Fold:
Amino acid sequence: MSKLSTQEQVTAHSESSFSAKNVGKGVLRFEDLKIIKGIRGYADDIEFADQHYAAVLSSPYAHAKIVRIDVSKALQVPGVILILTGKEIKSLTNPMSSRAATKSPTSHYILAVDKVRFMGEPVALVVAKSKYIAADAVSLIEVEYEPLPVVSSIEEALKKDAPLIYPELGSNELIFDHFEFGDVNKAFKEADKIVKQRLKIQRYGSTPLETWNVNAYFDKTREELLVYATDQQPGRTVQSVERTIKIPASKIRLIVPPVGGGFGNKLAIWHFVALMGLAAKLCGKPVKWVQTRMENLYAFHRPRGFMDAEFAMRKDGKILGVKLSDWQADGNWPYVAALYSLIKFANMSGVYEIRNLSFEYRSVATNDPPIVQDRGVGKPFMSFVIERMMDIAADELKLDKIAIRQKNLIPTEKMPYTTASGEVYESGNYPETLRRALRLSDYNLKREEQARLRKEGRYIGIGLAEGIEPGTSNLGYYFLSKADQPDYNGAGQMSTVEIAPDGVVKVNMNGPEIGTGHVTTIAQVVSDVFGLEPSEIVVDASFDSTLGHLTYAGTYSNAFNDVYIGAVLKASEQLKNKVLSIASSVLKEPKESLFLKEGYVCKNIQTAEKLLSFKELAKISYGRLLSFPKDQEPGLKVVAAYVNPTAKPFVRSDFNVQLTHSNSVHVCYVEVIPENWNVKILDYSIVHDAGKVINPIIVEGLAIGSTVSGIGGAMYEEFVFDEQGINLSLTFGDYLKPTAMEAPELRIEMMESPAPNTVLGTKAVGEGGAITSLAAVAGAIEDALKPFNVRITELPVTPEKIWNWIKQSNEFKRISGGVR
Amino acid sequence: MYPSNFEYMRPKTLEEAIELISSMEGSRVLAGGQSLLSMMKLRIFEPSSLIDIGFIPELKHVKLEDKHKVRIGAMVNHHEILDNPIVRENLPMLSSTAEKIADLQVRNRGTIGGSICEADPAADYLPTLMALNAKVHLKSKSEERSLDIEEFIKGPFETEIQDGEILTEVEIEKNTENFAVEKYARRKADFAVASVAASARLAKDGKVEYIRVAIGATSEGPKRLKDIESSIIGKTSAQLDLGQIIQNTISKIDMISDLHGGSEYRKYVLSGMLMRMLESLITKGRQR
Structure:
């Protein structure tokens, strides 16, 4: 595809006859009543006849040899029907392989084989008649471990004589690669000042209310594996299960009921689908596994890591060039190793015009638990790095923090803008977003108030961050360091729209509904095509692998309102066209004179004369085959696939990781309380530009939710491990989520710069808060602590950390004269 | 997070409950379950049976006796304590403490007797009960006795309760002195990083004629700070170097040290709280 053809696509899409009536309205979510009543029909609500239950034995060690496993006592518990350990798994399944790494480990199976590599790694699986019996039996399995030295940091992992997580690779460095765009050396030579800083990110992650669920049954009569699972990427899961447990994909039926929270956390469930699928096949009974909260907290988080950033600055604040070196502790999960680094290409230069840029990254295996694509993946950390560097550069050059940003923002007239690496920012007005945020937050007044209160001895700070929120994965970035081309992509989806035999319009997006308002949003879009009310559209909120879907079907990467809406709208318009053609033949009226309204084919725009009901039309189309127009095919069901047209094939010099790019400015206003150094967010303002908004209530809700999750990352959340790799944060008493009591009121203003490359001009909306908030919060706290001369380079910023940073400072000694 | 197998029993009278407790080997009393059930799900505790005393009417009273003695049944929940007019009027310090406990769900389920017997060093009630000189009543098949709360609490998660005994009632003298109760935790619903319960009365000449100070979240459990009390009593605020007094005491205390705060940090926070709260109590008088 050509470098940039967004303008042409504007023309292509404007040919559609779509006219918005319900799109853009704040319709209340239809799905919520069932959620509140507890009758949504989640995976755990589904039970097979003769249901059996699985429980997992998890490793208490972060790194140990498995010397011996004795399951004999557990097998004697009445009701236990199957126990699997690494021994069976090794002989019955294939190991996992890396997606991005050129060399893949060959020893990582869906249950630990011979050794464990993280605390919580599944070591054995018990299937029993009840979940209590299964849990009892797990506690009777005897495992003899021989502890191995634990690799608990990136630095240790890369030492010459470091113990190897995967001995077969000969190194703990899973991937190293280096990219350069423009002339970085020249930029650094010409710079007036080089600003350098190492910035760190902790291990944290989303914790959906609903944990992972798998319910598998192998039907011998059909030789088919039927699985219900809380899976965010079920299309891929089918492929992975086929490869792992050797059941043909065509014989796997995977159904995803409504999901109780996704956040990316449920992208790694596939190996449990494989494990339960295998267990179900071996024992002949339906096997249900519901992950416990503790199991959910053991593993599958964001990786910790750090980045060395160097900004070559001109003294007036212009960025001439940037060098980034990224170190990512990917734990031991070769499957998505380096993903967090790779996805940073999507917002590597943020909202700024940076033409000379180098990026190198290392994915390092440690005894940290595995990682998963958690909300925003590497983008929150990337945004944290850039926006912190902007603040730091402003400090070092003695420039205003707003002015230095304004100096470097991509000018609106350069939109659509292609970044140095090839990412295409399709639309947006970054200077205007910033202007509006300054106004919304009363920035100047706040600065005055801050100065006034400072004189009263209060520590008030303002932080500002402007971030890019990329969405829709052009997944080939996994292959940036490999020679092959990927045989998968996230840039498209397939959905089904029909008028059922009873005349009702039904939609199946055929992707996981993860609680973010898909049902209502789809109903709004489809109702506008058919001239109906949103409440009249029946939306099936589930995925079924026997229905039309593309290989990487799933709800991930902030892509719903691009690719699923694209597919649903395409199918709707094809179906509408078919309806009008059939009606034209049946009614003997010219097709151009007909339109759809209130469940009827009508003519005459002024009077809207109702000629034929959908009900009648359905009767004709499904049943009256002899009088049916000869030039048409019976039935009113359309399956359509949509691919975002701006996805480019991958070459190292020019690639787009993501296909839509929302942006936002966050302004955070805090007070730090000297008695305990706790941080109170006094005010928080967001201007969010997510292109065209289908439902402002839902979009605002997503902005609030994602920002609070970001505040969690900035101030509260961290999975803490001791030097033996033991996870110390295994309950919600120790892993701190911000609750409603801690969440600030957010002031949110929407801006709409429609995306020219999506069907309705929509863009990513689910991750912006999680991406942009980290730097806004950290910047505000740093600003409040200015008298103490603190530079915040790591998260979460906890009161105790602040106390440790400042307690040697003169300002601290000055104010704490009274006590200590 | 599935508990191991256990029997569940729900006695209707205190007598029946005591009978069950003394006869059932390996049983535990369920007194709200806000800590016990989590421990059982983690399989830290695996009792063979639970004796649920939450349905015994004799354990649910709040009474004012002779206009000065408040008797609170062990199974009165936290919400009731913050809401009950007798408690609010006669022991405002206690109802104010209950308001700070965890969240609404916990306050509706958790009970004062359960909390006292759990003896979590960072729990909210204990410093207040120490500052109020509360007594607890214990009953077994053969004996009834009462102990001062300070005798009853032996240390973190450790009490004087014996096998076969049930804590039936908390008895507290009416106390409407000026008080201040605070806990510091990062999140509203968490256990305290540091907590202070204090009350004081000033004479007309400004001298402190009554003072009680107790703290939570130390490594030895909740503590009454008698050193501080004796340094303050009989003096006016002008005669006191409060910073020094607090420092002398705090330096001898070890606080809990965990993910939520190391001992040194907690001491820093505690010092600040004590300074501000005591200063306010002994200079300005009333603080709620």
Chain B touches chain A at residues 1-2, 4-5, 38, 42-43, 103, 184, 186-191, 193, 243, 246-247, 259-262, 265, 268-269, 271-273, 275-276 (CB under 8 Å). Chain B has three domains: 7-52, 57-173, 178-283.
